[in-house]
Amino acid sequence: MLLNLGPEADIVASEVYNLLLTYAQLQRQHSSFKLNPTSKAAAPIFHYSWYRQINDEAHKFRNPSTTTAKAVWAVSKQHGHCLTGTPAQNSLLDFHPLFKFLGVTHENVDVLNIYEQKIYSKRQQGPIINKSAKKLFDLIKKDFCIFRSKSDVDSETGRPLVMLPSCTDLIIDIALSVEERIIYSHIKEMSLHIFATLTRLRQACDHPSLVQRVLQDGAGSDQSEENISLRTMVKSQGSLATMSRKLPRAARNPFSDFFRSSKLKAMLQILHKCKGQKTIIFTHFTSFIPVIAQALHSANIRWAEYTGGTSHKDQEEALMQIAEDEECSVIIISILAGSVGLNITSCNKHYTHGTVDQAIARVHRIGQMLPITVYRLVVQESIEKSILKKQQLKREMIGDMYGDVAGDPCGDLDEATRRA
């Protein structure tokens, strides 16, 4: 086996039988191959015919327009396999790049525009597809796909194929404080690009400090933290005197990392209740990690940190610390770093900030011996509620695709079970 760690790695057909590399490495070699198709040294992968190509985390190339998808398709191979826990994250359209790689040519569905005509188009909305499209998709699925869920049982013994502890999924409704709600409302009224607005609203749900810069950019010349804080609130309420009476002195500067937002307060309450148990805190925003760390430090809670920006060595040390250090009870993980290729079976509690189901699956998997509790902290009357509804619709869509509840990270849980 050759572990391809860089462009210098040599591939000699007579000596190498197994090659392990990342999608990024494959993409780089494909770019070199397109520039100089005759140079074997520049892109050796594309100058050999491989017996088998296995794509782990195959949803990584679900977008057919990406260079990653084109690189995956370009490899010459006899047999192909795709492994993924989430083959479709948005719609049936996500299956097309995988089907094309697998060589599914039935009714020419490997051609994108024909796939869109016969199975699913970008113009369609929601999980519903017509009967003829469903019939075709089910036929392809039967011949080319093997679905396995955590709830599958042995047909002969009736026992689960995978023995896992219970997983309880709870939604914790968070009410913003007066000052947090004012900041959130102001962000909502700002003239930002739609995607920027959505991101800033999500950040405002976490902590005001995450949106301080965008507020400063439109706040005028006086950029002190205290003035930007008060100015924002005055603009929303119309009276500095009125707002000053409403806010306690300790809350005059919600942009400080020391300010405990409603989410942080709820997080600390959960950690206090689960004292002595290992906990993962998932977050979408790495900028939120120092704020979380400050809250943990002030509460005398020892933590480890795992993000995509840390070195592989530091990541391994963080995982070892949470697994073996009895004094370390929390690990903070960025969602992008923690949703793939990670095995964490030392933790059984989760404060999940807007995380995706795949991140939860990093914990609720083979090797986990303890019951799992997932806490989703969701701000009332906010963008987070809308996102939650969208996620549930996608889970239902995934369930329709698979014919089961594979889209649910904890199995078949009703809505009442998921609410605290």
Automatic annotation (TrEMBL):
- Keyword Hydrolase on this protein? yes
What are the entry keywords? ATP-binding, Hydrolase, Nucleotide-binding
Which CDD domains does this one have? SF2_C_SNF (cd18793)
Determine if ATP-binding is one of this entry's keywords. Answer: yes
An example GO BP is: DNA repair
What Pfam families does this protein map onto?
Helicase_C, SNF2-rel_dom
GO (cellular component) term, any one: nucleus
PANTHER family (alphabetical):
TRANSCRIPTION TERMINATION FACTOR 2-RELATED
Name recorded for this polypeptide: P-loop containing nucleoside triphosphate hydrolase protein
Organism per entry: Gymnopilus junonius (Spectacular rustgill mushroom)
